[in-house]
Amino acid sequence: MKKYFFSAVFCCLVYLGKGQNMAQTPPMGWMTWNYFADNINEKDIKEIADALVSSGMAKAGYNHIFIDDGWQGGRDNRNNIIPDPMKFPSGIKALADYVHSKGLKLGIYSDAASLTCAGYTASLNFEQQDAKTFASWDIDYLKYDYCGAPEDTETAKKRYAAMANALRESKREIVLGVCEWGDRQPWLWAKEAGGQLWRTTADIRDKWKSSQLASKPSDLHRLGAGIMDIYDINVELTQYAGTGGWNDPDMLMAGLYGKKGPSGELGGKGCTDVEYRSQMSLWAMMSSPLIASNDVRTMNEVTKRILMNKEVIAINQDALGKPAVRKIKIETYDVLMKPLSNGDIAIAILNRSDKTQTIKINLEAFGLTGNYLINDLWLNKMIGKGKSWNGTVESHETKLFRLQASK
Ligand code: GLA
């Protein structure tokens, strides 16, 4: 009797503990949407999986392939959601097996209404059945969108909790990415509803910033959100993110160069490599998910260097899980500071202006009273020692430093 009691308690604890360790650091990977939109198929996704491995992206930490909208082929006569048989003739389970055999994880996409944003079959009122299906395919992550759902926050909380519970009951660890674009302040409730990350803004476009000023964040759905528009919203929310629950300011733009498709719409005419590198630096500092969206099969050397800088990724993936705080915000530049688990400090200096600037920062002004070895993570070298930094920052460039206390 006693034996049964203890094993029942043990099982219960295991069940309660399940999922507690998900998304300990911001998820990383590659997402289909910006490059392929809904023109996805198993052949291209397998090629991307191969390229993630051969390019070194997987080794650098990009260990997920996130299938976005467009995979669905409706429901079968038992109402099980099925993939489009033309796009995925071997089925999603076979694709998951392939992706797993490469050491990668597989994400999938649905929506908390009857149809997704691109008009495909979605999961409202089929949460348990779909979660079971995803688990049976060995899915590791679900991006759960919110097109076609009501405006109010209470319904959103309920619909996300319904899917989170269904995933939990599926007995497979499936990370839940909430995607209602920040319109209902999900940083206040998404973790409690069972999500591990939540989009904070409208979809990112391949541009530095919107040519018109948005009077409220949701205007960016219409105006098209650039890197700066999204950064300025997300950087104010860093207090809400941490281990197991992350702000998601959407995908990385590096390597897209104004490609036609979702990221190229609403003024997404492309950015310079300096701007793409800035996005990588700022996303790393804000502990954002690092989700590449360019064609990794053909990316150039500059894009590889932007996406695969080990030291920059280490700032993002640091075990302390503390996103940066904005210490200085003036018209022309910003300074961010992020504490790291070994006691080092990361500092970013963003030149927001259209001109090269000479900037001097005094570390004591941020409460950093010691002497520091200053490592420039894009030059990949130690550039000095002391209590301050003084140098030039190009227009739209972000300098990224790791400071190590020294005598
Ligand atoms: C919404 C999401 C995007 C993408 C599309 C797919 O716009 O915010 O990230 O998933 O839907 O239709």
What does this 3D model show about the protein?
- The chain is an alpha/beta fold and 407 residues long.
- It has 2 domains: 23-316, Aldolase class I (TIM Barrel), CATH 3.20.20; 325-406, Immunoglobulin-like (Sandwich), CATH 2.60.40.
- Helix content is 29%, strand content 23%.
- The protein is built from 13 helices and 18 strands.
- It has helices at residues 2-17, 33-36, 42-54, 57-60, 91-101, 127-136, 153-169, 190-193, 220-223, 227-234, 273-285, 301-307, 310-316, and strands spanning 28-31, 64-66, 72-75, 81-83, 105-111, 141-145, 175-179, 197-199, 246-248, 290-292, 325-329, 333-339, 345-351, 357-362, 371-376, 381-386, 388-393, 398-406.
- It has an 8-stranded parallel beta sheet with strand order 9-8-7-6-5-2-1-10. The chain has a 6-stranded antiparallel beta sheet with strand order 11-12-13-18-15-16, covered by helices on one side. A two-stranded antiparallel ribbon has the order 3-4.
- The model is unreliable at 9-17 (pLDDT under 50).
- The site of alpha-D-galactopyranose (GLA) has 10 residues, from loops.
Major sheet size, sense and barrel closure:
8 strands, parallel
Number of helices: 13
* Computed Rg: 22 Å
For the record, the count of structural domains works out to 2
CATH superfamily of the largest domain: Aldolase class I
Instruction: Please state roughly what percent of the residues sit in beta strands, choosing from under 5%, 5-15%, 15-25%, 25-35%, 35-45% or over 45%.
Output: 15-25%
Bound ligands: alpha-D-galactopyranose
Mean pLDDT: 95
Q: Kindly name the structural category.
A: alpha/beta
Model regions low in confidence, pLDDT < 50 over at least 5 residues: 9-17
Number of strands: 18
CATH hierarchy class name of the largest domain: Alpha Beta
CATH topology category name of the largest domain = TIM Barrel
Question: Percent helix among the residues?
Answer: 25-40%
